[in-house]
Each structure stands twice: as structure tokens, then as C-alpha cells.
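Lab meeting, action items carried over

1. Structure of the two-component assembly. Owner: GW. Status: complete.
Input record:
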Amino acid sequence: MRKLIFAINTTLDGCVDHTKQFVDEETLEYFTHLTREVDLQVFGRKTYQLMVPYWPEVLKNQSETKADHEFARAFDSTNKLVFSRSLNSVEGRNTRIVRTNLRDEMLKLKQEQGKNILVGGVDIPSQLMELGLIDEYRFVVGPTLAGAGRRLLEGVSLPERLQLTLVESKVLKSGCVALHYSKH
Amino acid sequence: MLLRNIDFSVETRIRPRILWVRLWVGKSARPRPLNAATRNIATHRPEGLAWGPAKTLGSDIVEGIRRIKAQDGPDVILSGSSTLTSTLLEHGLADEVLLVVFPVLLGTGKRISADGTPPRSFELVGTKALASGVILSTYKPNGPLRTGTMKRIGVSRVREQGKKGGFK
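Predicted assembly:
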């Protein structure tokens, strides 16, 4: 069965708002490697619109860094699934919109043949955590305290505390610590 | 282990103090270094000082901690307060932050910093993974969060326009 991997950058105090963080080159490379290991990426509408058209445009723009380009290429070439009730169409390629039933759709996709699935964002991953459907977690913890801001699992309640198993921890030069956990 | 070399323990207001007393007082297996350390309590209620050796930090907590830091002696540890931690960081009184991350997702509960604490940056000193999956990371405060660092790598057109995109 395909694994569902959730990856996100977070501050020391658990703020996952991307505007409160600074993503260094090595963190971007970490996400590039992760994206290359999957063949499907899942987003909610808000995260999708954060990523597209931003990354497809980076791909067209020669003035960006090598790390930016490599992430953009990995991102662009992967199939994407967007959960949205309001989007009718998307401008990005290899993208499908799904309106309803997150649980059934994800269960079906996990049963299908293929590489692992990567999910990003806040709302959709939080719901998937509540549903117990995430198999692996990647938290890249930046050396900052945000003080306030968006966190994971707001508005959802876990049926029980989720015990994880630490698979690996890796220190990046920027002082970010990349933590890799799997479901217990 | 971490408490072995520590003689001063700076604790917070009455509630965590009670928690500590409940946890450790009367237990024969309580760690000797913890028991021997002088506890400096930020409290308005004298009953919080029952577990000696204990002293009050006085009405001005920040001044009280400055006073202790200025004295000769072993390092001072503050354990487990979301309100006092934020105060100490804001006043530049913490020299080191040890973060202990357990491999558990809860979804609710107390956070490290009180809401509205100004954003701050840190320098990672070191990190260690224990066999249990617990991660111990040590940080040094590195001042307020500098937005200038945003421009260090890969400034994009989107960001130059004042917006952030692509999760960066």
C-alpha cells in the first residue's frame, strides 16, 4: 500500500504559517528530495494556490537559484490532487480537483499502485491526522519562536494522542532540524 | 542527569510549583540534585515556599532573576512555564534554551510561548536523539526575528512585491 507522507516547516512553538518562517536553500533541497520520492501531491485549495502559479513561474524564470529551479521542476512534474468546493478549474498541469469525501478518496488512492503520496498544507493534513490516514510525518523545525500564528490540528480533535516513532533526525546548516516520524 | 550541576531552580508562579511539590515531595526516589537545589520561586503566596531550600524572587520577577544571575554560583534552570519563559526571553535573560520534543501529537494543550510574545530567532547549538524517540535540542537566543534574512537566498519576484509565495 502507498504511504501517505505529511511534510511541513514549523517554528519551535509549532507555528506553521509560512509567512512567519524563512526557508533556506538546504530546506528547499530537503523538500525537493521528498517530492521526487512521490508521484502524487495532495493539497487543499489554499495551499495549492500558494504553490501555483508561484512554482510553475519559477520554472520559467531564469533568474531564480538552482535550488529554486530544482524544487520547481520536481513540483511541476508530479501529479497533483486539490480538494476544493469552490475551484472549477486550475491553470496548472497534471492536476485533478476533488470536491468531496476526503476519507474515501484518500483510502482509494492509498490502495492504488504507485509511489508514495505527499500531502502539504494545514487544514487537509489536520483532517487526515484526525482520520488516522497519515503514515509518515516530516517536520522541519526552524530555530525561531513565532509567538503566535497558525498551528496544526486547529478545529479538529484527535480521537486519542498520536504516538509516533522517530525514524531519523537531521540537522541542517541553518539550524533547522528535520524530523522524520512514522505512525506507531 | 540534567539537574546534576544545578543549584538554583527558578520556577514559576504557584501552579507549576504545586505540581513540582506534588511530584517530588515525599518520594524517596526523588533525585538528590533537585532536592538539594535552592528553589527561587516567582510567587505571591508564601505557601509556595514549603519545599525548602526555597526563596521568593520578590515582586519584580525580572529584577529577581537579574539579581541571581549576577551572583557567583552554578547555572540557573527554569523549568516548564509558558508565561515565565516568554518573560525571560523578552528581557534577554535566558542564555540557553533546551527543547525536549516527545514523539507524540496531541492537538491541544499548553504551548511554549504565551500568545503575543514577540517573534525571536535562535541559534542551534546541538541536537541529540534518544532511543525513546525524544529529541533534545539546545538553542542560544539570537535576538528578535530579523526579516532582513528573508532576502538572503532566492529573493523572488513575488516576495519583492511584498507577498510570499510557494511556501517559502
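2. GW to write a short summary for the group page. Key points so far: Residues 2 and 169 of chain A are 23 Å apart (CA to CA). The beta strands of chain A are 4-10, 38-44, 79-83, 95-98, 116-119, 136-141, 144-145, 162-171, 177-183.
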